[in-house]
Amino acid sequence: MTSMFRKVYFFLIGLFLSLPLIVVAGVSVNQKQTLAFPPQGFSLSWYGEIFLNPEWRNALFASVTLAVLSAALAVAIALPLSWFLWRRIAPWANIFQLLGVAPFTLPPVITALGMLTFWATVGFYGQPWTAVVSHAIFFVTLPLVTLSLGFTSIDRSLVEAASTMGADERTIFRTVVLPLILPYIVSGYAFAFVLSLNEYIVAYMTVGFTMETLPIKIFNALRYGYTPTMASVTVLFVTTAAVIFSLVARFGDLPKLLGAMSSDGK
Amino acid sequence: MRREPPQSLGDYLPLLFPAAMLTIFFVVPFGTMIAVSFFQRQQGGFYTPAFVFDNYARFLSVFFGGVLGFSLMLAIIVAICCVVLALPFTYMLTRMARKVQVVWLVALLSILSLSEVIIGFAWSTLFSRTAGITNILVALGIMEQAKALTPSFGAVLTGMVYQAFPYTVLVLFPALVRLDPTLTEAARTLGASPLRAFFTVVVPALRNTITATLIMVFIFALGSYLLPQLLGRPQHWTLSVLITDQAIYQSNMPFAAAMAVFLVLVTLGLVALTVIAGRKGEAA
User: Fold this and answer.
1) How far apart are CA A18 and CA B129, in angstroms?
2) Which of A194, A245, B112, B186 is most exposed, with minimal Cβ within 10 Å?
């Protein structure tokens, strides 16, 4: 295809993708409490509001805590599972791989509703930690897929060499496998972290009535009164995601990571 | 170290934690949901264990049929729009310099990870009267007066295409990367224009990929639970929105669960179709 056509097409797609974000960024610097665009006056106070207003600050704190913990738990579930599947021949264990991918493949409202009925039945409904577990299960797919990919890229002869030299299983894991797999652990964690930060429906159905994460807070603000803080939080979220994914791309092979994600994972 | 079957019970130990977590917190909740779908609803928001088909019988209403039909239609339109837009885009992207690819992939991933709440908020702002796109058109003298473009079907569709587009590109990306570049080169050498080469060589070679992608984007769009609510009117609500509404606001868990089970069945059927399409693709 001619380069002129390509340039125009990419420009239009880029415009389509960035236009809502440009408008939101514009709205976030309004001087007064209006959602006007082009912005009236210029003020960064709505960014300060995220950290100064106790409601928004609590929501930010809740979201970050949830994302840090649930991504860690997701990796803790995915790492031993993907290691086992790489190390052992146990076809029936693949069922757990399938279970790990399922929550992400099904429409999110289904996982959310499953969690809601479950926590309500066992009597823990509304407790903050239930959201951590729910998110970890919901997003376990991401570290699982990146780690499975990571393990397949390990040259088995390296491990064999270590074994021949007399290293036991534990030493091999610590000195050979872990350093090789570390980038994939980090990117799996990063994916789960960013998605957990943004997740609404599972968090809402598990802890929506007892605590507010940032997406829940934005949704509530949409219903009960607009404020430019919603726009500044959005800009913060987009920036965070872009920075984290750039870091993943900087230290890992993003095209490769994505190439495998779509064929194995989804 | 070669792969070997587990020798002793101790070799299964690493599996213990992941297996327990996934069973307790995914299989059991899923089972709970199925069980609840047969429960009897009580006025006041609670439900009692029972085994009734009432919740499923409600599917037979005209209202439900309408919602289901609308959800399927909307998801099909979104899937077609996304694939039509994303196929040429992804094809050209895979032929660009690696650095450019990475920049676009980072941008697409960032948008894909955005919450539906945020996408809904961004588009409702863009479509609003005070901050919207119509203000730009007024400034350019194309329109007389700024007006709100939401709630409307067009707004719902735009929001959902926006949400699903990055996903579509990422699904198409690996298949297009692997596409043999000599195919198009051969077509070009034989005198085909770039456009002609794209439609007569690339598109047919990717027929199965395109089918599988359409189905996957369709499932993705079926899962959209907020955008129809934020950008549309009640008649634009989809099954996912209705499930959320029944579970949270109407407190009718059994009915919500029954609809969710139904949605799972539809999705699984489609996943099976994707797998079959994928198998055929490998064989071809």
Assistant:
1) 19
2) B186
Q: Does A171 touch chain B (CB under 8 A)?
A: no
- Domain membership of residue B13 (yes or no) is no
Going along chain A from its start, the domains and CATH numbers come out as: 1-43 (no CATH), 54-265 (1.10.3720.10)
CB A101 within 8 A of CB A145: yes
Question: Is there a contact between A237 and B174 if contact means CB atoms under 8 Å apart?
Answer: no
Task: Calculate the alpha carbon distances from A67 to A73, B14, B119, B121, B174 in Å.
Answer: 10, 24, 20, 22, 28
How many domains does chain B divide into? 1
Question: Any chain A CB within 8 A of the CB of B216?
Answer: yes
- Whether residue B44 is predicted with pLDDT greater than 80 in this model: the reply is no
Predicted confidence at residue A70, as pLDDT, reads 96
| Domain with B149 in it | 62-283
Nearest alpha carbon to residue A144 among A185, A88, A108, A93: A185
Distance to chain A for B111, nearest Cα, Å: 7
Query: Which stretches of chain B are assigned E, i.e. beta strand?
Result: 40-41, 47-48
pTM score > 0.90 for this model? no
Identify which has the larger pLDDT, A43 or B73.
Answer: B73
* pLDDT (tens digit per residue) in B83-98: 999 999 999 898 888 8
In this structure, what CATH number is given to the domain that contains residue B113? 1.10.3720.10
**Phi, psi (rounded to 5 degrees) for A169:** -50, -45
- Domain-embedded: residue B50: no
**Among residues A249, A248, A212, A247, which one has the least CA distance to residue A233?**
A212
Tell me, what's the ipTM? 0.85
Name residues 11-30 of chain A within 8 A of B (Cβ): 13, 16-17, 19-21, 23-24, 26-27
pLDDT tens-place string over residues B196-231: 888 888 888 888 888 888 988 998 899 888 899 889
Tell me the chain A residues in contact with residue B260 when contact means C-beta distances shorter than 8 Å. Answer: 109-110, 113-114
Tokens of B220: 């993705």
Residue B47 resides in a domain: no
What's the pLDDT at A262? 44
Residue B127 falls within a domain, yes or no?
yes
Residue B183 near chain A (CB below 8 Å)? no
